[in-house]
């Protein structure tokens, strides 16, 4: 057995591993930035088109915000990964008040990727927020699509979430 | 592999080159490469120190590549070729003694030598290797799997490395920046656990190298990175959490800049806290405490990063902290580093939450350090403002704005505003009129105060009025002044408004620079938000230049492709197409030149203003007989350093102008020293 082969199979020191790792895909993976399972059904009939846009997008959907999260807080947090071009707060379709989600658009894709890698899954206003790629902002996407004007998730959740108006809408309407 | 090494060096890929050299060294340990040929290669490396007319950083790298491989292969090389090695050693030592170290103060995180000296990286490595030599090359930390196979390996055929000549220095060669080794812990900080290797022990070097390597490999995936760090082999023999925290802070505080984006370190530390909830948070708290204690001598740029890190970190833990432990800052001069730090941290915490929350999280004794409620200040708002000039116009404007007036309607309301600067208006009608700017900007910003989006809409809707009022340089400055008066309680709003005004070309970068150094801002001159605005402004300028340069390159390439196609097809009709493209290239060329000139001017303005205020301070201290080293002075001179460090690549282009025009020999030595340190960085 060649000496080289033996070296590859033994546990190398971290520095040799780095050299080998330059050739190993695992150490260059960027799994945080991959697309999620969400497809926007209302606006794009063609998933392939949507996927292309998502891979170039500089816009993020941000979810699980408290209803009290302000534009200022979102600006401060998301500025840590780069210059923000625009923030569009999500609104209740009927009341037009802030409703726990927003869109953040960056000038560069790299800055948006940094947000997905380092701001996704961290806290804002004591809640762990989540981000997802968005194919691009179009008018009326800032309104929730839930039946009562908010987001779908707020129609259904059974538990009490003080930051999102208490019990889910459907659960509430069922209460006498 | 030797070819790969040469290619990496030519491509300025020094990280890869160092790993290649180490890998080759390990191959010597495996008896794959003959030791004498490795010694010969190192001889060639160290002979670079004899080269003349090359940057010191070039010689430094070759010495570093040699020394940093010795923990791996020193023993083997010394056993086979001790005389030659001694010679190489002597050459290295004499080089290290004669190399200049002017750049060191600029790169140190702390200016104090206690409790741990902040050593230049080659000095530290030399001390570590000398100790290793004295210990007869006994090194127990590196994994050496080949030892288990020694009996087979030593029978294998050995190869000689081909002779290696370091690629020559070229104009395009860019060598790694020198570094200062960051040390914050020693064995006394963890009395109960395993002993931390000393600062000059080779174990310390190897552990730190390995941990930095893990971060370098996995920084894009924070969970993997954290997992790899905490499962470091041999972790039971060392206080691993202390090493990890020290290595992460070393990167975060590295000057000129951290290797990776700042926010990565925040999330990495939080992932580590999640993985080791019983041990790591305590080490992190201990580290925070130590950093706080040593704020007095910490470089201002590093303090900025400490503020940003700590406030963001706290926001993930409901802002829980034992603020009372820091009550000592309450009795100090509010401009000194500790109270300043706490004030800035609380301001940043407020940006991530809200004003009342901050009042709630600190003890009542800290209320003096709490940020102001970020409300808008409208001068025409109350009864007493009736007597102010322009008051009636302001009311008129307010009504107009609320009824969705157009730009033209606003212009006609403003036409009647008298100009306090002159008795009669020019024929132009819209020369610099500070009162017009005042009533317009105050009223509009006040009405749009509800949120950033409202303010941005206002700027967009009345862009035409803004552009006209701010046409002159004085106009631009006044717009910024008035905006600052309205929003002085809300630094975050000021920052986003300045950003938008630059992007929509209501003001230009030079106006922002002049505004920052103006007397209106002198009270807030040492506050963090001011410098964030200035550096953001410079970055926008730099990005703008790059963007137009790219457009020009693309147009040139398009033309070249068209020419090639024409010579291939022999098509005469594309002459006309060429003309349009050539015109576009000419226009872009002009645009690039104008942008580059604006960029250079921005830096010159900034340096000039720094020199002016610093000289003023130094002269005043000399006449009064007081000490130069006030907190303000330390802050200001380090802000000047920060300009050089954060934008060093661009500034390198202006060295000749700076030397001849601004940083001349007549300048006060305190200020000139900063420039000299900067020159030494790539000298």
What does this structure look like?
The complex is a heterodimer of chains A (176) and B (683). By secondary structure, chain A is α+β, with helices and mostly antiparallel strands. Chain A is 31% helix and 18% strand. Chain A has a four-stranded antiparallel beta sheet with strand order 2-3-1-6. A two-stranded antiparallel ribbon of chain A has the order 4-5. Chain B starts with a helix and ends with a helix. In chain B, 37% of the residues are buried. The chains are: A alpha+beta (176), B mainly alpha (683). The interface between A and B is large, with 42 and 55 residues. Chain B: This is Nuclear cap-binding protein subunit 1 isoform X2. Chain B: Keywords: mRNA capping, mRNA processing, mRNA splicing, Nucleus, RNA-mediated gene silencing. Chain B: Pfam families: MIF4G, MIF4G_like, MIF4G_like_2. Chain B: It is found in: Nucleus.
> Order of helices and strands of chain B, N to C?
HHHHHHHHHHHHHHHHHHHHHHHHHHHHH
How far is the first residue's CA from the last residue's CA of chain B?
30 Å
Mean pLDDT across all amino acids of chain B: 91
In DSSP terms (H or I, runs of 4 or more residues), the helix count of chain B works out at 29
Distance between the termini of chain A: 78 Å
SSE series of chain A: HHHEHEEHEEEHH
Rg of chain A, alpha carbons: 21 Å
Structural class of chain B: mainly alpha
Q: How many strand elements of chain B?
A: 0
What topology, given as strand order, has the largest sheet of chain A? 2-3-1-6
Strand content of chain A: 15-25%
SSE class of chain A: alpha+beta
Low-confidence stretches of chain B: none
